[in-house]
Write a structure and sequence with these properties.
It is built from two helices and five strands; from the N terminus they run βββαβαβ. The protein has helices at residues 61-77, 93-103, and strands at 19-26, 31-37, 42-47, 82-88, 107-113. It has a five-stranded mixed beta sheet, covered by helices on one side. Helix 1 packs parallel to helix 2 (93-103). The longest helix has 17 residues, at 61-77. InterPro entries: Ribosomal_uS11 (IPR001971), Ribosomal_uS11_bac-type (IPR019981), Ribosomal_uS11_CS (IPR018102), Ribosomal_uS11_sf (IPR036967).
């Protein structure tokens, strides 16, 4: 007869998360929404692909809205009230995901665009000799 060892930090034991960070990565092909706590540990995530969208429909604003709603639904149940939003990428789902986050009832501290921008980029290849 073995004793069960309680898991510390398990999601199932009703851990309350009052504040978190919502990361939205919007590419042209898919939108991924990840919700983390302040320390960066993933609490919930969703993407347009896991919501059942396939092919070109994954890059649509409606798919991004559905993915954001799915990711946020679980953290609202865990008690999240405030969040920061980090948006990355050039995709169509940026605005739709942000609208879905605002509609969920979570107070947003700030919204930041963290899309990587090249400062002059890579060196171009040599010109072709004829």
């Amino acid at each position: 007869m073995t004793k069960t060892i309680p898991r510390i930090g398990s999601r199932r034991n009703g851990r309350r998360i009052p504040k978190g960070v919502i990361h939205v990565q919007a590419s042209f092909n898919n939108t991924i929404v990840t919700v983390t706590d302040i320390r960066g540990r993933v609490v919930s995530w969703s993407s347009a692909g896991t919501c059942g969208f396939r092919g070109t429909r994954r890059g649509t604003p409606f798919a991004a809205q559905t993915a954001a709603a799915n990711a946020i639904r679980t953290v609202v149940d865990q008690g999240m009230q405030r969040a920061e939003v980090m948006i990355k990428g050039p995709g169509l789902g940026r605005d739709a995901a942000l609208r879905a986050i605002r509609r969920s009832g979570i107070l947003l501290s700030f919204v930041r665009d963290v899309t990587p921008m090249p400062h002059n980029g890579c060196r171009p290849p040599k010109k072709r000799r004829v």
